Amino acid sequence: MKTIAELTTFIAFNAVLAVCIPTALKAQPANPQPAPKAGAPLISSGGKVDLKRFFKPESATVFLFLKSSSTLESAFAAALQSDIRRHAGQSIGLHLIPLKTGNEPVASQHGVTQTPSALIYDRRGRLVSRSSDAAQIRAAIQKAARIPRIDWAEEGDPRLETVRRMTGGRPIPDILRTLSLQPEYLRAFMEFGERVQFTDGFLDRRTKEMIGTYVSALNECRYCVSSHARGLQMQGANSSLVDALATLNIPQAKLEQKENALLDYVRVLTLEPSKVRDTHIARLRETGWNDEQIFEATTVTALFAFANRMANAYGLDYPTGGWIPPSLRAAKTETTDNTDGAANGAK
What we know:
The protein is an alpha+beta fold. It has 15 helices and four strands. The chain has two domains: 25-145, Glutaredoxin (3-Layer(aba) Sandwich), CATH 3.40.30; 158-328, AhpD-like.
C-alpha cells in the first residue's frame, strides 16, 4: 500500500493543516428501551446469510446477534443505535440478527455461541472484533470507524515512533498520520504549515482560519473544515460567521466588501484555478489588500488544497472536539436529550 500512499501525497501536493477521532461512543442508558427499528434493519430470521452483502460502503458495519425475547438485550441494541446516531461523523452501519434459541443456522455459520454478540467490520470488510462484552463492542466500533482508506504507520512500525517524537509524544492528529509512511514529508509539512497557517504574517491568524475553513468547505473536507472552523472560533469569530463559512452560506456571514472579495478569489482559486484573472487581483487591490497579503492568501489556499486532499483520500471524518454542522449538532442534542430523559426517568 506504500505506493498508493505516496501517489496520494503526490497528487495532493500538486493540487496544492488541520488538527485533532471520531467522538467516543458513550455508555448505554441505565433503563431498558424498545428494540431499535429505523436504521437497524433485520437481515435474517435465523437462516444463513452472507454478511458481505450488507456491508455499508465507506463505513464500518456492525452485526448484532441478540435474543429477541430478552428485554435487556433489546435495550442494549437500542442504546447502541442511539450511540451511533450521536456519532457526529461517519455513519456506521448497524444490522440486527434476532435469535430465538441461539442454535439457528446463522449463529452456527458465524460462530456465535452467546448473545448479545457483535461482529464489527471495518470499511475494507475486515473483521475487527467479535465480542459479547458491551465495553469491548463499543471500543471495537470506535476502532473500526477510524480505519483509513489507505494504510498509515501502525503501532510497532518504527516510522510511527519517529512521528511520535516529532509531535512531542502527544496524540498524533489523523491529518499528520496520513503522512506517517514518509516522516520526512511530514516534517516538511509541519514546518511549512506552522509558518503559513499558525502564525501571524501578512495576514492575521483569524483571516487565515477564515480562508482555511472556507477552502475546506469548498473541498467538502469534513476533517479540515471541522478543525479550522473550531480554530476560527478560537480566534474570536462568532458562531454565525463560523457556520456560514463552514456551510458555504456566505450571505449569512455578513462580511465587508473587502472580505467578500478575498473569499471570491479563494473560491475561484480552489475550484477553478485556471480561471484566475487579472481582474480578481485588481479587485483585491481595490478593496484594500496589498500584494503581500494576496500572496499569503494564495499560499494558505494552496496549503489547504494539499491538506484537504490528503484527509479526503484517507477518509478522515469530523474529529473529536471540532466544529460540526448545525444539522448534526441538532440531531446529537436531540438524542442526548432523549437518552438523558430516559435515564432520569429510571431513577
